[in-house]
Amino acid sequence: MAEPQSSFCREVPNLLSSFVDTFVDFSVSGLFLLPQHHQQQPPTNPDSVSKTTPFQTRLPSPDRLIAVGDLHGDLQKSKEALRLARLIDGSDHWVGGSATVVQVGDVLDRGGDELKILYFLEKLKREASRTGGTFITMNGNHEIMNVDGDFRYVTKAGLDEFMVWADWFCIGNKMKSLCQGLPKLKDPFEGIPLTFRGVKQEFFDGFRARIAALRPEGPISRRFLSQNLTVLVVGESIFVHGGLLPEHVSYGLERINEEVRDWLNGLTGKRSPAYCRGRDAVVWLRKFSDELAKNCDCSTLEHVLSTIPGVKRMIMGHTIQEVGINGACDNKAIRIDVGMSKGCINGLPEVLEINRSSELRILTANPLYDNKQKSSLEMEVERGLGFLVPEQGPKQVQVKA
C-alpha cells in the first residue's frame, strides 16, 4: 500500500484520542472560534461567499478611524496596540463601538503567533460588526511572500505553529470523512514535496505544513488572506502596505483588490500579480517611507494623490520608523510601522487615530517623549491637527490612552 501524502495524517488516530483533553487549551490560545450563543449570529463565513463578490475599496469617513501597523507574529504586542486605542478590553473583547480599524498587513513572519493573530483578528471582526464597527485587514509583502512560497523570514516557532495547525486540520478532515453524503475532501498536502533543497531536514514538516496552509487556494489563504484588501480608501486617506505609483492608480484600485483575491483563491495561477513583486510593488515600495523627509519622493506622491478623488494622504506600513509614527511630504505620507514585534525591533506600540474632521493623533505607549522644546506646529500635533517632520528626522508625540 502506498504511503500517504502527509506524515501528519498518519498520526490521526492518536491525535483523535487526545482531542477532548486539548480542545480547551487551543480554544484559549485562539486557534478556534467558539460560537457565542448569547450573541447575534456572526457574519457569513467567507468560505461560503462567492469569489466574484466585489470588494468595497472606498469607504466614507467614520467618526473614529484607527490605523494599526505591522504585527509580525507577536500576539501580545498586537493586543497592546489595540488596547492602547481602546478597541479591546482586558478580556480581549471588542469595545470599540462603531470605530473603523485598518491593519495594514504583515501579520506573517518574524514571530510564532501568526495563526493566533489571524484567528484573533477574525474574532474581532465578528464582534465589531455587532456594534456597528468595522475591522479591515490588508495584505502586506510578507503575506504575498508566503503565498508565493518565500519563507525567508519564517521562524522556527512559526513553523511549529503551522505544524500544530496541520495536525488539527487533518483531524477535522478525518471527522468529516466519517459523515455520509459529504464530498471527498482534498488532501491539503497533495503535490507538496517531502524534502526541500537547502533546508534542514528538521524543518521539512514545517515547510510542508506552511505550504499546504498558505499556497493559493490553501485553507489559510482562502479563509483569511483572500478577505484582505490590498488598497483601501477611507475618507481622505488611502491605505496601502508599501505605496502607490501612478501606474498602480491607472491600473485600477478595485482591479488590484479583486485580482489579488482571485490569486489567493487559486483562480489565476501560482504566482502573485506582477504589481505585488519587486521594489516598486504596492506592498514593497519605499519611496515615501524614508525616515529623512528630504529623501522621500514627494512630487510623485503628490501626483498620485491628485489622481484619486478626495484623497489627501497615503498611510503606509512596511518600513520601520524607529522614532515612531510620523509624517513626511507635508503630512501627505503617514508612516505607521513602528516595528513593535519582538521579531523586529521590539518597538513600543503605537496607533494612528483619525476623527471625522480628518484630524490626526498618535496614540503611543512611549513614556520618553520630551516636550521641553516644541515648535508651534508640534503643539498642533498634540492637539491633533497634524504632524511635523523636519529635514533632520521626524518627531513623536505622546497621547495618553
TrEMBL record:
This is Shewanella-like protein phosphatase 2. The lineage of its organism: Eukaryota, Viridiplantae, Streptophyta, Embryophyta, Tracheophyta. Residues 37-60 are annotated as: Disordered. Transmembrane segments: none annotated. It holds the Pfam family Metallophos. It comes from the Eukaryota. Residues 64-319 form the Calcineurin-like phosphoesterase domain. CDD domains: MPP_Shelphs. Residues 46-59 have a biased composition (Polar residues). GO terms for molecular function: hydrolase activity. It comes from Quillaja saponaria (Soap bark tree).
